[in-house]
Amino acid sequence: MFYLITVTVLWAFSFSLIGEFLAGSVDSYFAVLTRIVLATLVFLPFLKPALLNLKQKAILASLGAVQLGLMYIFFYHAFLFLSVPEVLLFTIFTPLYVAILNDALFKRFTPFYLLCALIATTGAAIIRFNGISDNYWFGFAVVQGANLSFALGQVGYKKLTSTFKTQVPYHNVFAWFYLGALAIALPAFFIFGNTSQLPQNAQQWGILLWLGIVASGLGYYFWNQGALKVSGGTLAIMNNALIPAGLVVNLLLWQKDTDFSRLFLGGAIIAIALWMSHQYSKKQKQL
Length: 287
Prior knowledge:
Elements: H1 2-22, H2 28-43, H3 54-78, H4 84-90, H5 94-105, H6 111-127, H7 134-161, H8 175-192, H9 202-228, H10 232-253, H11 260-286
Helix pairs in contact: 1-9, 1-10, 2-3, 2-8, 2-9, 3-7, 3-8, 4-10, 5-7, 5-10, 6-11
């Protein structure tokens, strides 16, 4: 739990740093590539290839490609269409996706989770009921792409580590995770990147260094290790703990013109949907 709480506090600042200083001024693909390269360099010196077989290496790299590579591409683009508080609120769907993906993994289907997602979508609409635009809903969909990628990575990582026959020092294999992400980020930048939007000042470079080495490098490692030490329910709750933490940071340090009544009403409806899902999961475990 300590790992998850620490990373939650760490990531709470990342949303605002991206939204306030990088989004729209630094090319998203370059920012993603820089973060992943730096994170890879943190763990590459510890890599011991012999600890995993070829299949395990490929799976771990694939999880990195999805949870980090694809997720970051979706995530950074979301800030072009949504405010920081909106991006934060819409990440609340991640635990639902975790539950649905778990169902898929064990060949089950639970329609109640889809009902919860629909209720939460209503809450999202209330936040921007006046002046909802195509960009808003497109941004909402982009965040869901990030949520699905992050959820799939968490579920897949727990499943993969359960197949390890011996106790593996995770820091000696985690570089495969970042190398997989790099396989997505590198070609994405060369194909879609805009070289005219590279960082222009020391502040932007400093933020990228912090996000790459600390938030991505150390953050994802300790988050995934923390996920192995807690139950699925606790992991779901911690996924959502990031939302109020990130909102507090953004509203206190970079307070903008915000319709707090709509923000809190919509957020409350989303939270109720999450609570319904969590209560249903608890009852299912008791049966």
